Structure prediction request, 741 residues.
Amino acid sequence: MPEKKEILRGAEIFCRALKDEGVKHLFGYPGGAVLHIYDALYKQNDVEHILVRHEQGATHAADGYARATGKPGVVLVTSGPGATNAITGIATAHMDSIPLVVFTGQVPRKMIGNDAFQEVDSIGITRPCVKHNFLVNDVKTLATIIKKAFYVATSGRPGPVVVDIPKDVTADSCEYEYPENINMRSYSPVIKGHSGQIKKASKLILSAKKPMIYSGGGVILGEASKELTEFTRILNYPITNTLMGLGAYPATDQQFIGMLGMHGTYEANMAMHNCDVLVAIGARFDDRVTGDLEKFCPYAKIIHIDVDPSSIAKNVPVDIPIVGDVKHVLKDLNKILNSEKNKLDENRNELELWWKQIREWASIDCLKYDRTSSIIKPQYVVEKLWELTNGDAYITSDVGQHQMWAAQFYKFDKPRRWINSGGLGTMGFGLPSAMGVKLAFPNETVACITGEASLVMCIQELSTCLQYGTPIKIINLNNRYMGMVRQWQEFFYSGRYSHSYMEALPDFVKMAESYGHEGIRIEKSDDVENALKEALSMKDKTVIMDFITDQTENVYPMIASGKGHHEMHLSSERELA
Amino acid sequence: MRHIISLLLENEAGSLSRVSGLFSARAFNIESLSVAPTEDPTMSRLTLVTTGSDAIVEQITKQLNKLVDVIKVVDLNEYEHIERELLLIKLVAEVKEDHDAIKRIVDTFYGRIVNVNDNLYTIEITDTCEKIDAFITTLDDRLILEVVRSGALAISLSDKAIQS
Prediction:
């Protein structure tokens, strides 16, 4: 006799399925359509629910959690405004391929389409910004759909999945069984790369005279840092990382020549422009990376490794495409390269000349800034933070100048340490995502490098930080401007600073205190180091450090839009010959 | 260039809007689209006509393949195939010469008059999209009351089927 299965209500199935999926944290906010689920959550202890203060905070927190751990972030919100508030966070995760499973409550089935209270077409409204979504029509399908949602979110090129659950489904009952495996005829991501293509690629790689490795967020998502590092070291080729790929290769290593793209280093961009073989790994040729496509890598044969075939040849035609999981493909490549690395000797002299050229470009010191200034330079704050945390902290950021300075000056040696919204560019991401990271790693230092404009966009989550004891360090680079907007207005709109000045800012120290945290205001360069030390020593406190920084500082170097990698602008004082 | 793309997709609520939404979100052209369940009712077969450069059509097929509901994508331009569209059209004859002209043109295009009601003719034609275009152009605009077209359907002539 087979064991009789338990009969559970939909709301209980929800909780059990999360437990069986190994979910530890659920970020959410209750409301009418999910009250049955919240009642079931109340009666269990397997999944810890984190009550955020706004649904956008829930999705960003789950997103930060996912980026730091590699596990899917899980969110529960109610119907209508609960779902719409979550959209920004879902779209943020979608653009950066972050695995999230977002459960949205829905009005009861018989009311769908009737403009019921707190009804919105969540499936329709999320469709363009999810990897997939499901409407649960029958309680009997709930467990399977949850399993599918986790499978789709985490496999192949990851991404957010929305599961919309009508309220009456959570009240219905059926036998509970959580499937062990899922097989979907319409979905089977490629894992192994084509061996013929890999062989062809290895030949081209070994024949390069001016090689360049360009790796992106896919290496981090694919847990392939070790393989990437081995690949790069076997070859002794220069490597650059995209904004999303920082940390995939140790930034303090001498083969690393900095980030590339709009605010990348001069040497990385010049090496891109002049290389003869480009190996793109888990990167998607984003417009902020490539600059003008007409001028992109004019002399290079391009190899592109990516798990998503649609990323290949989307923006830039490639010579050798390899579809597959980057970890698998790099392993296969490394095997070949290890046995054939004697071929590298043939181009030893050319490679030495190439490195010499790169060192020459690097000698320009494109990230130079005024270290003697008594007014606080934002770059200095990031550099000091890097020193004082031994380069080992988890750093989240918002979007704008501070984000670029964090990327340029915090040298990430490990993957999953740098957590930012690269694709969608979502202000308000930094604070809630830091909270998510801290929940995952309570013993690690977590800092959010932000600006005064971004920070206030999700400031309400300071309450959540207090409630759940997630002591994060908030580095507010406060220049009283939307800095990146101001920078563009200075460069491209003749200094007409239209609505980019932040008047009537709050007192961030008092704000921190009013939320039950610590606040420090720092106004002089000389005080930066001590303030950071003090904040970092308060292990169990969330601290807002309000750094009053130079209002006129710009992010350099820069490729203006429509320009190529070789047309960088160094700074207002320095131009290239 | 014009391409006919065939899709097999899960016959589930919302899967059609994923396909159509993809075209609008990525600014791809869509000239016609027709869809119905197959002999296996859990699957729908969708035929769509699009235009674009080789690079764009490559992106279209890749993006379609990426949709979780899509089981199979085939660009039928890569195969020998036939294509048919159904036209239903209502024509109104005003003078005697119109009656003659309608009959003559319908005959020429191998059409079928399916209903006549006084001066009102309802006609069906199954042919390629170009032939149907030509038929409509040949008719005097004055005669045309209403036009409905199915959009192209297409099937390859090979001995293999598009399957899951």
Observations:
- The domain at 2-79 of chain B is CATH 3.30.70.260 (Alpha-Beta Plaits).
- Chain B touches chain A through 20 residues (CB under 8 Å).
